[in-house]
């Protein structure tokens, strides 16, 4: 279904089903031109105002399940799972979502990755009880957006559950926010002007190879990884548990901690895992006074001598070759 430049759209109890499965996905987007001969988009809303979606589902499409482009509206209850490439896209406009889930997004051989959701191009996105789980690669990618997530869930994604870069503001809050068993780095903040991470549990991030620095590979498994020198970052009321490399890494990139506030954070772990580390900048005395580390983690942090590698910015997020 495609809607272009409508003044108002309302959809209720609609299910859209495409042809994509895990078994046929490689042939659909790897044979030249075939992706243009199948059902690529479930629902597209282009420059449409006053959108109201209720119990709308779009599954098993080849590019996007649901795509908002310069559109404004709300989506209450729904699902965009088992799509190839991207489950939900919001490019520009303002969208509020509640009780929407994205699961099992399949990796595309065209862009060599997958995203449960992509929010980009100065969009404003607010979610409550938004879940991204079991996606083959990333959960949510934020690029040049303002976003707020209350009680978000992100479990068992192949890579980061929540990645934000070049954003004015990103907020994660709500006592039911929980992220478990994601790959490489559960939450990544890259050059976000103002970030808030409160009231969340982030656990069991799995180590995996990531390109760092000048192109070398390093095994990363971080609960939170924030490149945040001279930016505003507020962190409080977190449980960081058994993340395989480190619970929280703050990369200052030659900056200071002047805009960083760290409240109560509890960190648990074992073996060689680190807890909370600030590197490559000017730290503040007592910056971790409210950070409670388990005994082994505290010892590891005290004795750390290495500089930990960080993720690189994700490149093109426009995906013009699949938006259509």
Q: Give the overall form.
A: globular
Low-confidence runs of at least 5 consecutive residues: none
Helix-strand topology string: EEHEEEEEEEEEEEEEEEEEEEEEEEEHH
* Helix proportion range: under 10%
How many H/I helical runs? 3
Strand content: over 45%
Overall mean pLDDT stands at 93
| SS elements, strand count | 26
Radius of gyration: 20 Å
Structural class: mainly beta
Measured distance between first and last alpha carbons:
13 Å
Largest sheet: 24 strands, parallel
Please explain how this structure is put together:
By secondary structure, this protein is mainly beta. It contains 3 helices and 26 strands. The protein is globular. The model has no long low-confidence stretch (mean pLDDT 93).
SSE layout:
Blueprint: E1 2-4, E2 9-17, H1 25-30, E3 41-46, E4 51-59, E5 64-79, E6 86-103, E7 115-120, E8 124-128, E9 131-133, E10 138-143, E11 146-150, E12 153-155, E13 162-165, E14 169-173, E15 177-180, E16 185-190, E17 194-203, E18 208-212, E19 216-220, E20 222-227, E21 232-241, E22 246-251, E23 260-262, E24 265-268, E25 274-279, E26 291-293, H2 295-302, H3 320-323
Parallel strand pairs: 1-3, 2-4, 3-5, 4-5, 5-6, 6-7, 6-8, 6-9, 7-10, 8-11, 10-13, 11-14, 12-15, 13-16, 14-17, 15-17, 16-20, 17-21, 20-22, 21-23, 21-24, 22-25, 24-26
Antiparallel strand pairs: 18-19
């Amino acid at each position: 279904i495609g809607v272009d430049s409508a003044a108002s759209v309302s959809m209720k109890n609609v299910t859209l089903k495409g042809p994509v499965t895990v078994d046929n996905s490689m042939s659909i987007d790897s044979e030249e031109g075939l992706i243009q001969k199948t059902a690529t988009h479930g629902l597209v809303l282009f420059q449409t105002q006053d959108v109201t979606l209720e119990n709308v589902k779009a599954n098993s499409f080849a590019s996007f399940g649901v795509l908002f482009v310069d559109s404004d509206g709300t989506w209450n209850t729904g699902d965009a799972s088992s799509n190839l490439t991207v489950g939900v896209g919001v490019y520009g406009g303002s969208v509020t979502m509640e009780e929407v889930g994205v699961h099992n997004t399949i990796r595309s051989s065209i862009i060599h990755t997958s995203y449960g959701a992509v929010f980009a191009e100065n969009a404003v996105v607010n979610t409550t009880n938004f879940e991204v789980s079991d996606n083959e690669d990333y959960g949510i990618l934020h690029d040049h957006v303002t976003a707020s997530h209350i009680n978000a869930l992100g479990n068992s994604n192949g890579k980061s559950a929540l990645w934000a870069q070049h954003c004015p503001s990103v907020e994660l809050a709500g006592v039911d926010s929980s992220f478990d068993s994601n790959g490489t780095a559960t939450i990544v903040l890259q050059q976000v002007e103002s970030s808030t991470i409160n009231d969340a549990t982030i656990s069991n991030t799995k180590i995996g190879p990531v390109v760092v620095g000048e192109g070398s590979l390093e095994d990363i498994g971080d609960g939170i990884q924030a490149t945040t020198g001279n930016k505003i970052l507020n962190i409080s009321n977190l449980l960081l548990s058994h993340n395989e490399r480190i619970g929280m890494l703050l990369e200052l990139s030659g900056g200071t901690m002047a805009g960083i506030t760290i409240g109560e954070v509890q960190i648990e772990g074992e073996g060689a895992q680190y807890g909370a580390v600030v590197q490559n900048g000017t730290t503040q005395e007592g910056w971790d006074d409210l950070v409670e580390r388990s005994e082994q983690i505290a010892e590891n942090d005290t004795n750390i001598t290495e500089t930990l590698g960080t993720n690189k910015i994700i490149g093109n997020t426009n995906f013009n070759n699949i938006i259509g």
